[in-house]
């Protein structure tokens, strides 16, 4: 089991200047590499405090590549429906070269109605656009004179430059929240899987992983060789109650931000997102149920011994070969507090786990 970090800003200019947010993020990724974390992932969102400081993951990851040399750099995830595949494939190939072959590419469908409306993309087309554009990116990375006659894009012949540094192409992942169909499709396509495990009960995450592995079997692939990454909020302090207090604060702010971003679901219906009309009412993740979610294994919080025990439980549920990614740079904690969590985890939590792997141990 390896451990990475995920940058998911839930802050705005009234709380933190964007330049300060990015500067702190670059300091944290340098520290994460020194401590042995294997990966940094960055989200894509637009317009809202919920993720809006990260409209271009490739831009930030290029800056991160310049100040690191070993940690892998991932999109978690880019939304291909919002970009032309030639442009997106070129940006990602360029980033793979800038980072000397350290890129992991997570693709996601997106789920915020206001983002789809702003880009002029019908939500009902999101799944089909996702599959067409991801396939187009892979073809542009691996083939010459590519001709695409798709439902949404038509071009060719096109030979992409630059070619990716990793051959035949960077590792590709599907980012999934709750969809069994999306997990099965990722398995059949031979992609890795990124799951936001914090939003679902344990049984549902197990179902998602099972659907993914069955998809791989259906495609004639080994079920256990696909990379699976699970993301969780993580709060560690020498004093467990201090960690939980920080977690309650950050998760409360998260709840406010996602509620504002999903408000439009109250008046939106889409065949591609069944049941999402309930999201506006259910999104608030304030501090009221924080302790319940820690107890259910959906948030990691406590002193080093407590968090190590929580991860051992996760390994028992999903296996020791999954990777965990911790949402860490929301913008609501100081650099010092975020750095303390990363340091305590690497120095006091990971050594308690016999299955933990750090890149500092892989030299």
From TrEMBL:
Occurrences of domain Luciferase-like (ranges): 1-316
UniProt GO MF annotations: oxidoreductase activity, acting on paired donors, with incorporation or reduction of molecular oxygen
InterPro entries: Bact_Lucif_Oxidored (IPR050766), Luciferase-like_dom (IPR011251), Luciferase-like_sf (IPR036661)
SUPFAM superfamilies registered for this protein in UniProt: Bacterial luciferase-like (SSF51679)
GO cellular component term, pick one: cytosol
Protein name: Luciferase
Organism listed in the record: Streptomyces filamentosus (Streptomyces roseosporus)
């Amino acid at each position: 089991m390896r451990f990475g970090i995920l940058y998911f800003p839930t802050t705005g200019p009234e709380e933190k200047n964007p330049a300060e947010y990015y500067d702190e993020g670059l300091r944290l990724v340098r520290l994460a590499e020194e401590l042995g974390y294997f990966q940094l992932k960055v989200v894509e969102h637009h317009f809202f405090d919920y993720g809006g400081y990260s409209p271009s993951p490739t831009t930030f990851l290029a800056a991160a590549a310049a100040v690191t040399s070993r940690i892998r750099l991932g999109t978690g995830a880019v939304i291909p429906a919002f970009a032309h595949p030639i442009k997106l494939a070129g940006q990602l190939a360029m980033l793979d070269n800038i980072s000397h072959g350290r890129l992991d590419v997570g693709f996601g469908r997106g789920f915020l109605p206001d983002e789809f409306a702003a880009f002029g993309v019908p939500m009902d087309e999101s799944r089909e656009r996702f599959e067409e554009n991801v396939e187009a990116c892979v073809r542009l990375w691996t083939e010459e004179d590519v001709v695409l006659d798709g439902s949404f894009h038509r071009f060719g012949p096109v030979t992409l430059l630059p070619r990716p540094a990793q051959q035949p192409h960077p590792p590709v992942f599907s980012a999934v929240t709750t969809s069994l169909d999306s997990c099965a499709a990722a398995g059949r396509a031979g992609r890795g899987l990124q799951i936001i495990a914090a939003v679902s009960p344990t049984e549902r995450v197990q179902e998602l992983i099972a659907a993914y592995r069955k998809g791989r079997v259906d495609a004639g692939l080994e079920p256990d060789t696909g990379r699976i990454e699970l993301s969780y909020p993580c709060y560690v302090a020498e004093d467990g109650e201090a960690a939980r207090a920080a977690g309650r604060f950050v998760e409360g702010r998260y709840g406010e931000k996602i509620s504002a971003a999903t408000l439009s679901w109250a008046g939106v219906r889409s065949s591609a997102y069944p049941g999402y009309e309930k999201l506006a009412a259910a999104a608030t993740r304030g501090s009221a149920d924080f302790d319940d979610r820690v107890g259910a294994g959906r948030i990691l919080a406590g002193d080093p011994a407590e968090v190590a025990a929580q991860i051992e439980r996760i390994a028992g549920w999903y296996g020791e070969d999954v990777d965990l990614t911790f949402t860490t740079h929301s913008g609501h904690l100081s650099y010092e507090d975020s750095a303390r969590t990363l340091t305590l985890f690497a120095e006091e939590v990971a050594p308690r786990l016999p299955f933990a792997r750090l890149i500092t141990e892989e030299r």
